[in-house]
Amino acid sequence: MCGIVGYIGLQQASPIILDGLRRLEYRGYDSAGICTLDEGVAQIRRAQGKLLNLENLLYDNPARGTRGVGHTRWATHGRPSEINAHPHRAGSIVLVHNGIIENYISLKGRLQDLGHQFSSETDTEIIAHLVEDHYRDSGDFEQAVRQALAEVKGAYAVAILCIDEPDKLIAAKLGSPLVVGQGKGEYFVASDIPAMLSHTREMIFLEDGEMVVFTPLAMRFSDLAGNPLTKQSKTITWSPTMAEKGGYRHFMLKEIYEQPRALADTIAGRALVEEGDVYLEDLDLDDAQLAGLEKIFIIACGTSWHAGLVGKFYLEKIARVPVEIDIASEFRYRDPIIPANSLTILVSQSGETADTLAALREAHGKGGKTLCICNVVDSSIARESDGIIYTHAGPEIGVASTKAFTTQLVALYLLALKLGRIRRSLSAADCQARLADLLELPRKLEETLELDAEIEELAREFVNARDFLYLGRGNLYPIALEGALKLKEISYIHAEGYPAGEMKHGPIALIDEDLPVVVLVPRNSTYDKVVSNMEEVCARGGQVIAVVSGDDEELLDKVAALISVPTVDEDLLPIITSVPMQLLAYYIAVLKGTDVDQPRNLAKSVTVE
Ligand code: G6P
């Protein structure tokens, strides 16, 4: 995720940038850095870890100058370290970046052939070198930035200084957020509004493909081709705390809304559509090992365990490997039998969950290979696993996991496709078709979020229920579990998730007119079976909230409420149907007045047994 800040004006830049970074620390805190320009000299200070470390560094060794850029990092490419901290410099160019560059491998190769030497493991450093390469040719800073950005594929928000042109600061964006703050005789640019709110309330929002050139006296907007643009400013009335949540009432809601972006970032650079293949950069297990796998274990806790349950469907169906799934606290003490040609996959948002870490060590201790699906770069689980697939969800602050969950599902799906190709259970053509669907998913998720108001209304209707039952079948059974867990976690209403076909073996006894039953019944291969299960609930007076795909008019008159999600391939239904589960739990909790982001008794990361 990362946060960037830039300043140009008459005041000392460093305290302004530090204050901005402090308000952006929610976007990541693996390292922080700053560069100011002082009489033609770049004052670069960088420190690993939280912003405080950079502040201490600046206390001992201040960076003077009235223009500068700063960065707080959420590591994606390259572990958290001082070397990988931004700003990155190449010749006269100094740059901070938020986003992911997809074609960094080919760009890096080309630049190396031209004699460029790299000192970090980041994708960002490549942009600095690319700008510098063009700058060396033309001597025109603006033109060099345009030429470089035209070659970059992926997502970025950048703020760039040029030591030889100290009266200019350039910023541009594609895919990652960037906002300009207009002060009196000074300009600010940042990833998010709170970074600038204590200086100005006049903000201009950059759109994708737009660029801004600041001098101390003016700012000019253009597109990346150089065509001038006129932009209107908006006066922001948010309080600083509201602003940190991007105007959303809670981090959880903000994170629910971040899912299209988080999914796109997790897919970025990995879907090789033309080849019908998947590239997983840190898999670190060779194809022969993966081809010979006889068994996969998936181990996790909480929501991550639910992701693992869906992963079992993906891996067995697409890669045809038998999968055993277990809760980490159970696995670690049951003396599991781990065959030599098996792989243990640990799923963890934080990478620090004590039981999952212990399970990883148990698997290693028995000679097994391990792979983690993790959101936090260089966390304990990531460091100790043989291979890693990072989810690029960005920091998740709400205790109830949302965007981390859906990105875990995407990561597991990509892994299943990759294994399917290696093990020849998936043809290149089928893989191409699946990747094309996957690339459509962020847009479909965006559409799903339009259900917001409808679900808020529904929450009003059911807020007083004492219990909830969630039913799903196949790959949607884990989503029933996850829907129930979300509701329990934040609204404190008792809820159970059940496989729809198992309902008649117990939970059916609970059904009466006071029990809302959420039934996941989109069109898929078990549709008719779930409709029958739903009828059984209706026949006993249960209040069915049906989650369907597209227009399912047939069910309309049978149920108390219908939530319609966009139509997707049935393997992607778990991802799309997660959204109404999250929104329903969220709005019920808001109506109940609970502490949505920090629900009672729960912790974001459980680092004790
Ligand atoms: C806690 C959190 C859950 C999370 C679980 C596993 O219970 O409240 O949201 O799913 O831990 O955490 P992990 O970081 O390993 O995914």
Automatic annotation (TrEMBL):
GO cellular component, one term: cytosol
Gene name linked to the record: glmS
Organism expressing this protein natively: Pelovirga terrestris
Record keyword Cytoplasm present: yes
Catalytic reactions of this protein: D-fructose 6-phosphate + L-glutamine = D-glucosamine 6-phosphate + L-glutamate
Compartment(s): Cytoplasm
Name this polypeptide is given: Glutamine--fructose-6-phosphate aminotransferase [isomerizing]
SIS domain ranges (all copies): 285-425, 458-599
Residue ranges annotated for the Glutamine amidotransferase type-2 domain, each copy included: 2-217
The protein's Enzyme Commission number: 2.6.1.16
HAMAP family (alphabetical): GlmS
Function: Catalyzes the first step in hexosamine metabolism, converting fructose-6P into glucosamine-6P using glutamine as a nitrogen source.
Signal peptide per UniProt: none
Residues at the catalytic site: 2, 604
Keyword Transferase: yes
InterPro entries xref list: GATase_2_dom (IPR017932), GFAT (IPR005855), GFAT_N (IPR047084), GlmS/AgaS_SIS (IPR035466), GlmS/FrlB_SIS (IPR035490), Ntn_hydrolases_N (IPR029055), SIS_dom (IPR001347), SIS_dom_sf (IPR046348)
UniProt keywords, alphabetically: Aminotransferase, Cytoplasm, Glutamine amidotransferase, Repeat, Transferase
One of the GO BP terms on file: UDP-N-acetylglucosamine metabolic process
PROSITE patterns to which the protein is assigned, alphabetical: GATASE_TYPE_2 (PS51278), SIS (PS51464)
SUPFAM superfamilies: N-terminal nucleophile aminohydrolases (Ntn hydrolases), SIS domain
A Gene Ontology molecular function term of the record: glutamine-fructose-6-phosphate transaminase (isomerizing) activity
